[in-house]
Amino acid sequence: MKRFEGRNVIVTGASRGIGAAIAERLCAEGANVAIVARTIDKHDHLAGSLNETIARCARYGTRVEAVAADLADADSRATVVPRALELFDGRVDVLVNNAAAAIYQSLLSYPLKRRRLMFEVNVHAPLDLAQAVIPGMAERGEGWILNVSSASAKHAVGPPFRTAGRAQEIGLYGSTKAALNRETNALAVETYPFGIRVNTIEPRAAVMSEGAAALVGGLVTDDQIESMEAMVEAAIALCDCPLDRTGMICSSLDLLDELDRTVMTLDGTAAYPGGQRVWRG
């Protein structure tokens, strides 16, 4: 029996990058997955779409369904969990809040409209979706919620402060992720009596998703990059963790070291040749 066989999962931000890779690995491990993004078809300026993720996952023989919703809009995101429950016979076992709005800009000129959008997607949407799945999880006495965070939540060290590259432009994005981390911990406290595990995972190094490559491509070297497979391995470890692992803010590679966990390929059939780092062949 595969590890996630028979389990129903929601993964947001699954048209590309980390979300698409998590969805693929979960399908490979036997899960039925509802994948969520703003549109089903290709985005206007980034590679990837929900249709492409479905094509990636189809070979594993589990059920994968696309759910289009704008997580920046409260009414739109309110349709996600009811649709998943409709698709999966009234049960969601795992929620992966991966979607994020990442608008990098100096705080000295950051407009209110963009600030609101960032908090809607990165803070309010994960909590709204969690609130929607928790009643069913609590009734069954089991469930997993995973929020994908970022090391940018940590405070800048100084003075003097690093000012090169994106250092002066990630403050608001990092603020939303810091809020998400605190939200995770608080939610874990409240849901622990119901058998629900709530954690965050963040990359320890850069993961070169399509979005990340567009933002920082060329600014990082191989030793500053971790493999997509490593990030996914750490994520799925928290989608099936024991009850004593909840309320934690975890770094991908640190968690893999702690668990002494082998990084597998996205199809789950073999050890990934590069392990925690990108394999160049």
TrEMBL record:
UniProt entry keywords in alphabetical sequence: Oxidoreductase
Pfam families: adh_short
Gene Ontology MF terms: oxidoreductase activity
Gene Ontology cellular component list: membrane
rRNA-binding in keyword set: no
Oxidoreductase listed as a keyword: yes
Recorded family membership: Belongs to the short-chain dehydrogenases/reductases (SDR) family.
Family matches, as PANTHER family: DEHYDROGENASE/REDUCTASE SDR FAMILY MEMBER 7B, DEHYDROGENASE_REDUCTASE SDR FAMILY MEMBER 7B
The name this protein goes by in its record: Unannotated protein
Organism: freshwater metagenome
